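Re: the request from the purification team.
They wanted to know what the chain is likely to look like in 3D before they choose a buffer screen. I agreed to run a prediction and write the result into the notebook, where they can find it.
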Amino acid sequence: MSQGGKRPNSGPKKPMSPYGEKTSVIRVPSSIKSDVLVYLEAFKNKVAKPLEPMPPVLQASLNPIALARPVYSATVSAGQSRFPSPAQDYEQKFLDLNERYINNPPATFFFEVKGNSMEGVGIFEGDTVIVDRAVKPKSSSIIIAAVDGEWMVKRLYKRGDVIKLLSEHPDHAPITFSEGQELVIFGIVTYVIHQPK
C-alpha cells in the first residue's frame, strides 16, 4: 500500500494570507521598508478605498552632490530701515543647500502640494515640502499622512486619546477619527519651497 504524497482536496480551501490571496516573499532595501509597509497596511486593513498613488515625490540622495552657492554677509531690508549702499563690499561666503535643509538624506523626501488647506501657514498649491521621516511627530507638527488611503499635509493635534488633523484654512474642517479609521504618518514637514507670487 502506498503512503505519503498529496491527497486530493486536502489543505486549506482558501488563502491564509490577511490580504485574501497568495503571497510571495520579496526583499526590499531597508531605506524603503517603511514605505512598503504603508501600502501593505492599507490593503490588509481593507480601507474604504485603495491607497492613492503617492504624490510626486523625490528622495534625497544618500550622498548628495555638494550644492554650495554664494551668500553675502549683508542683510536685505523688507521694511523701511536704511542700509548701506549695495556697492559697499561685503564678505562672500558659501552655503551648501543640502547641509542647510537636509539633516538626514536617507529619510528625506520632497512632495508637491495640491490644494489650499494649509495656506494659513504659508503652504500653497504647487509648493514643494521637504519631509523628514526620522523626526518623531508631536502635537502641532505639520505632517504628511495617509488617512483611509488618501495622502495629505495637515497639522497634527494630539491630546490624550484624542487625535485630529487640522487645516490652516477656514473652509476646511478638522479631520477626526472614529474606530476603524486608519492614520499612517509618513513624516514631518521641515521646510517649504515656493515661488513668490
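For the purification team: The first helix runs from residue 33 to 44.
Please add any questions underneath this entry.
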